[in-house]
Predict the structure of Transposase DDE domain-containing protein.
Amino acid sequence: MISIDKITDIFCFIDEFHQEFEQAQNGHLLQTDCGIKRRNKKCKLSNSEVMTLMVLFHSGNFRNLKHFYLFYVKPHLKSEFPETVSYNRFVELQQKAVVPMALFLKMCCLGKCTGISFIDSTPLRSCHIKREKQHKTFKGMAAKGQCSIGWFFGFKLHLIINDKGEILDFMLTQGNVDDREPLKSDNFHKKIMGKLYGDKGYISKDLFEKLFVDGVHLVTKIRKNMKNSLMHTYDKVMLKKRAIIETVNDELKNMCQIEHTRHRSFDNFLSNLLSGLIAYSFFPKKPSLNL
C-alpha cells in the first residue's frame, strides 16, 4: 500500500492545483439576480480529498471501491481524512470532481516528448459482446468495434507515450472509430515531435504526409501484400520495442483498473478512467526503454 507520506504528497499536489482552479473558475461564473437565496455550504469532503481518494483506490490492490472506502479509508485513514461522508454521497461527489480531475490530468500529469513516441489503442469494454443489445448504461454512446483480440462493445482509449513510459496524450472514442482518426486532429499530436511508432493499423499515405508536414515521422510495419520499402535499422529495432505501450495498457487495465463492466453512469465511468490515468502518472517506476 501507499505510505502516509506519499498520500500527503499527492494530496498537496492536487490541492495546490484545485485552489488555482477555483480562483479561475470563480472569475468566470455567471451570476443570476433572480432574488432566490442559494445555499453555499461546503461539503465535508473537498474536491481535492475526493480526487486524492480516487487516485489512492487506483494505486492500491483494491478491486471494489465500496470496500475500499468503507473498510480501508474510514477506519485506517481517519487521521488523514477526519470528516468522511457516506458511500452514496461519496459516489455523488465523484461526478462533481470530473472537470477538475480532467484539467489536472491534462495540465499536470502528462509527460514531455523526447522525440521517440509510441501510439496504440486499447478497448474499454462496457459489457460482454453477447449482451450488447441488452446494455442500457451507455446506450447511444458505446459502440461495437473490433481489435486484434476480436469483437467488443464499448469505447477505445487512444494513447501516445514516450520511451520513458509517460503518457503524452490520450483520447477516448467510440469502439467503432478507426485508429487513424484521432491522429487527424491537430490537438491530439500537437505535443509530439520526431518519430512516432505504431502498428499496421496506422498505415495511411495521406496520414503520413499530413503528420510529416507537422514535424512528426510516422513509422509502421508493412503488410504482407505491400511492396517492401527501405527502412533504417534503428527504426526496425524501435518497432520491435513497441511492446512497451502494450505493457502500459496492461498496467492501466490490471493495476489501475480503468476497465470494468460495473459502471452505472457515464460520469462515474469518466471519473474512473481519469483517476486511473492520474494514478499511473504517480507510479514511481514505469515501463521504459532506458535509452
In short: The mean pLDDT is 89. The chain has two domains: 4-96, 116-265.
